[in-house]
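Honest question from a wet-lab person: if I give you the sequences of every part of a complex, can you actually get the arrangement of the whole thing, not just the pieces? Trying it with mine:
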Amino acid sequence: MRGYWWKILTIVLLTYTFIAGFLIPVPDVGNLEQTIRNLFFHVPMWFGQLTLITVSLVYSILYLRKPEARHDIYASEFAKTGIVFGMLGLVTGMIWANYTWGAPWNNDPKQLGAAIALLIYLAYFILRNSMTDIDKRARVSAVYNIFAYFIYVPMIMVLPRMVESLHPGGKGVEGNPGFGGQDLDATMRTVFWPAVIGWILLGIWITTLRLRLQLLEEKKTYTSLAS
Amino acid sequence: MTQSLQHIFVLLKKDFLLEIRQQYSFYGIVLYVASTIFVLYLAMGQPEEKVWNGLFWMIQLFICVNAVAKSFLQESSGRMLYYYTIAGPRDFILSKLLFNALLMTVMSVTSLLLFRLLMGDPLQHPLQFTAIVCLGGCSLSFVFTFLAAIAARARQNAALIAILGFPLIIPQVLLLMRISNIAFADVIQKGLLQMSALLVGLDLLTLALAAVLFPFLWKD
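Yes, you can. This is the full assembly:
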């Protein structure tokens, strides 16, 4: 129970998200109608992605401070799950935009920011795979990971505030560029925040499974080299 | 502090001397600038101002990748070891950043002259635009110098620099395009000072990150 209570919590929260997310009454905002329920699935993807790439950043910094192969594997696996969450966020956003804005891609600053994040992290994996020396790969990719993170995060903070956008909450310079917190009524809030926590935990869960596999594989290579 | 300034100065001087003695690489980039803009002129003629602005900054991006890429690739690992014994990694990266910023400023101004000569001259405020171009050249060169250092460690070519750099350079390029709009309009836009400050802030951030992270890249 000590080790896996949060996995049970993930299942409970996500079950709640799927049931309550489709059943609770939602406020009627503009032309959103029922698509407002996408808030419980689309927005948590970005919370999840940002959490995962931040954890990846922390492990990259740890690697530079103390070069252990484990830290490098952690950083790359968290970044991988971050890419998956980013793609899901982009796809859920595009499906939603197709119904509310009339087209899946509208050159909106948030869509551009999401696409840039995908390009950055895909480039991170190209860089990793271009090197065969394990120590050098770990060090160089950790440096790129840190550099990219500190350029990317100010960019998504600043860029959406500079331009007008159709995205909810996108009133140019006013307010949070990510989502329209002022549209969130009390009932939606009771589903939204559990959904955010549930999706973040799911991302971490997926990563820990992949990490176990990677660490086992690494162990296997070492023992086969030793024997 | 004074010692590290001295190191930076000596390393800068070395880069200048190398550039003067091996003139082929400098003139190679100048020729790259000239022929790219000439091909662009043949393809586009004299476009309207918005297209002019967009093309100008895209060409700067490609010039920067090519001008900066060689700065680390030309250093053999034996020579790197030698620099390591005479100067610290921080002095080394700062001298490279400064040198590339100067090189890129020269290239940007050259390409601006060629653009105004060949692609038409829609500028209303040429002086301000020249200042923006110098600032922009420095901004681009800072980001790409650090990425060139990364790509050199991975023993890769300019293509990797482009893959790594293009997503990261988007904020700077977008800011530069918006700032340079003032050169095409009669009235000065609001928020100009804020945007310029933002650009300078991003440059300082890049410099700080490069100074902090380069020592880790350097170690072997």
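Two things worth pointing out. Residues 68 and 145 of chain B are 6 Å apart (CA to CA). Chain B has one domain: 2-218.
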